[in-house]
Amino acid sequence: GACASGGNFQTVAKALVRRGSGQVLTLDAQNHGGSPSSPLMTYEAMSLDVQHLLSRLGITKCILLGHSMGGKTAMTLALQRPDLVERLISVDISPVSTTPVSEFSAYISAMKSVKIPDGLSRSAARQLADDQLRPVVQLPQLRQFLLTNLVEVEGRYVWRVNLEAISYHLADIMNFPVFHKPYPGPALFLGGSNSPYISSKDYPEIQRLFPKADIQHIQGAGHIVHQDKFEEFITAVLNFLPPP
């Protein structure tokens, strides 16, 4: 997802492997985590990044799982190159424009305005950043999620995520490319019941582009489904995977 990294999925990956999913790779999108910065941050560009990685690793077919922005990247790749994607799991996102741009824009602005003096301990720096984000980002779990990007570089605290690129490309990230040809493989749309991102008004477009889609909502989960309801999320993913 936007402002996330592969690290957010480490626990999920380990649980899936432990329970027999086979090999799992966790990726950082461009401008996120340890991946390089890129001035062009569209879903087509992010899909190409994944295609290049698959090619470099000699992976001819994979099961793709993506959350939010990662879900839209996974959908784009499945629609562009269905031959590479055996199954698709989109976590709490639909193949449509996502409306609350202003809300996310406010989070990015709040992150940009965080001021942390040099020389603080990691816990003190996190607490200070948390206090500064709180007026704009009310949900504690959302603040914790954003704070995973706060890193220490040569004694100074900086955001690991490329906020400039994300804010510049916010319209691209909130939109979804136009596709006419559907993805023929199995797809799981796994939403949180307390989140608006997979709603009944999106069902016709999901079914147009993903005719084999199964739409499920996990009760009591918000947008970060895998964090809010970890066990239920793992079970839903494993149930969707093909038998070994």
Automatic annotation (TrEMBL):
UniProt EC number: 3.1.1.116
Gene Ontology molecular function terms on file: carboxylic ester hydrolase activity
Keywords, sorted A to Z: Hydrolase
Broadest EC class assigned to this enzyme: hydrolase
InterPro entries: AB_hydrolase_1, AB_hydrolase_fold
Claim: Ion transport is one of the keywords in the record: no
Any single Gene Ontology cellular-component annotation: mitochondrion
SUPFAM superfamilies, per database record: alpha/beta-Hydrolases
Span of domain AB hydrolase-1: 1-228
Catalytic reactions on record: 1-octadecanoyl-2-(9Z-octadecenoyl)-sn-glycerol + H2O = 2-(9Z-octadecenoyl)-glycerol + octadecanoate + H(+); 1-octadecanoyl-2-(5Z,8Z,11Z,14Z-eicosatetraenoyl)-sn-glycerol + H2O = 2-(5Z,8Z,11Z,14Z-eicosatetraenoyl)-glycerol + octadecanoate + H(+); 1,2-didecanoylglycerol + H2O = decanoylglycerol + decanoate + H(+); a 1,2-diacyl-sn-glycerol + H2O = a 2-acylglycerol + a fatty acid + H(+)
Superkingdom as given in the UniProt entry: Eukaryota
Similarity comment: family membership: Belongs to the AB hydrolase superfamily.
The protein's name in its UniProt record: sn-1-specific diacylglycerol lipase ABHD11
Species annotation: Nipponia nippon (Crested ibis)
Lineage of origin: Eukaryota, Metazoa, Chordata, Craniata, Vertebrata
